[in-house]
Structure prediction request, 487 residues.
Amino acid sequence: MPDWGWFVIVIYGLGMTFIFAYSLVQLSLLLNYRKRRTAAAAEKEWEGEWPSVLVQLPVFNERYVVERLIEAACRLDYPKEKLSIQLLDDSTDESFEIAAALIAKKRAEGVQIEHVIRPIREGFKAGALGYGLDSTDANFVAIFDADFIPNRGFLKKAIPQFRNEEVGMVQSRWGHLNRDYSLLTKVQAFALDAHFTVEQSGRNLGNHFINFNGTAGVWRRSCIEDAGGWSADTLTEDLDLSYRAQLKGWKFKFIENLVSPAELPAEMNALKNQQYRWNKGAAECAKKHIGSIFRSKSISIGTKIHAFFHLLNSSIFIWIVICAIASLPLILLKNQVVGYELMFASGGILLFSFFVLAFFYYTSFVSLSTAPKKKFIWLYPAFLSLSMGMSLHNARAVLLGYFGKRTPFIRTPKWNLVGESGSFRQKKYVDRKVPLISWVEGLLGLYFLAALMVGIRLGEWGFIPLHAMLVFGFFAVFHYSVKHARS
Prediction:
């Protein structure tokens, strides 16, 4: 065995070990979810006088959806004297005037809505939320991003969950306004559905930490304050505050049958910005909180393990890139040395992870989707392929998070796309630049095409499905990145 061979095997083995452990944790969440009891948790009623609620709408340059958001917030069914709305507007374009005109109209109709403009835009979304909270004494705070359209009955279903004084946050499930717009939106909906059913419910039912997803949830004000308030020292202020609050002993609730419709990013570079923020922020939160979690004496071992993989789940993209690149030299090595058949056969652990995750996503798919079950046969591989294709981009974000590289909060633009209609191609906010990493993704597509051909020639059929998905995934991400930027 050459020295470089051992290096490849060790690196590949470490990656397979992490992916295997990750799949075991997902299996645990799946078992929790399947043992759940059907209960109308979101149908409880509030007893006595309704508490005061502040609805915060943080926006930045959202000319296509800001009116839709304001209209939906003003339609919320809640006692008028107990409800106030803040549009936390950091806009620098004409969306500011559009919002101001509609807010003036709503105020004339008797709606308690305020157009909040900060003197200094610092701290991004976290700074805006904290600034708005300082000017109110509301007991509860509901938050909706610009891509959401809260249902009229949202608050009267969410607020009764706070009858238990230990509950600090209630999170609803995201719906999808444009699920069938394109392959990109179909795959995103497929992935998010699994997160908002099996993952969030599985953690909640297992009494493990869950997270506020940044929007479509309600906070108890005293919980925010007890946890130290909003902080902009990570790109995922929602995940950060969630862990600080739960480390303080607050309980969170996820309500699966309370749905908040939202628009999915339909343009590749917008999706990349969103994924960059989520993955880099998760890595920053892992650095910030893992030590506190394992030092805590009030958290069970099971919850510590789940929190560890929850905070580190974005690291899987690093291992996907490493294992994918290492797969070609591994094929060549396998055909050069003898006597290590058992060791090479252990790579079959990937099949276990593949089928566990298939069961994980299938459970969510059949639970929420009205599509024929056979659609899962192509949707699951498409999801895996595009996830692999995004792995280089996401791995870079994770590494920057671990190394402490500070980067700005770049919001995800929205274009008011509903169903299969509408277009973003001639609208503002489309990123017209093709970043260097997109060209590297194209080169990796060629690399994995070569690996696919080598595997076929050498008869390494076990690697064929992996390399086929890698080829599709990297070429698809490269194609969409260039096409959407130049549209």
Remarks:
- The chain has a mean pLDDT of 93.
- The chain has two domains: 3-32+314-485, 44-271.
- Strands lie at 53-59, 83-89, 113-116, 140-143, 167-176, 217-220, 251-262.
